[in-house]
Amino acid sequence: xxxxxxxxxxxxxxxxAPAAAQQAPGGEGPGQVLRNLPDLxxxxxxxxxxxxxxxxxxxxxxxxIAVLVTSFTRIIVVLGLLRQGLGTQQLPPxxxxxxxxxxxxxxxxxxxxxxxHRDAVAPYMAGKAAQTEAVxxxxxxxxxxxxxxxxxxxxxxxxxxxxxxxxxxRKDLTWRDVPTGSLIPAFAVSELKVAFLIGFRILLPFLIIxxxxxxxxxxxxxxxxxxxxxxxxxxxxxxxxxxxWNLVVGTLISSFG
Length: 257
Known about the structure:
Helix content is 77%, strand content 0%. It folds into two domains: 1-68, no CATH class; 69-254, no CATH class. It is an all-alpha fold and 257 residues long. The longest helix is centred in the C-terminal third of the chain and has 40 residues, at 180-219. The chain is built from eleven helices and no strands.
């Protein structure tokens, strides 16, 4: 990622050089413009450039990491499967699903966020804790949440997929020995497993309705009529009568304990 960003920055600089040369007074050529660029042969300048690249990289991947370490993955996958089961195409729209998923994530993660603010953010802003101490305190609460969900789903074997051989073969391995870099992808895989299990239970009634409608239409010789058009009102009626949104949202929130 950092090499890609560096290549993009270098390309932008090279593209901007001719335009800057045309606007430079005295007819300065591209060589003069390039000489005005930072001297990367200097160790201090190079270190600053690398630090900026690291910051840009972290900022760009921070949303993805935030999604993987929270309950958002499970929630949005289940909501997406629900929409596929209903067969309503783009209804609800993606913006509504993502907004609902984000709000549900905030509700589920509220205790963890409160703990992070109490033990990490507030002491750091008050100057009572160093940056490394604040990061370690916040990481502890996030790790506890991920470990609790993996254990509740009984997906401890997913952690072994991302451990090196020496660490995975240890018989006295504890959660404290599992690095965060291995815990995050294991948590993501565990959340996908749980999301698909919940989604299967939600899709099963809709599948039965589709099969019944298709069988009835076939027996009546109405082969040219798409079964989806007929089954959609029945699926919506079943979903509304069962108070489906309340059941789905309540099941998702309660699944995190």
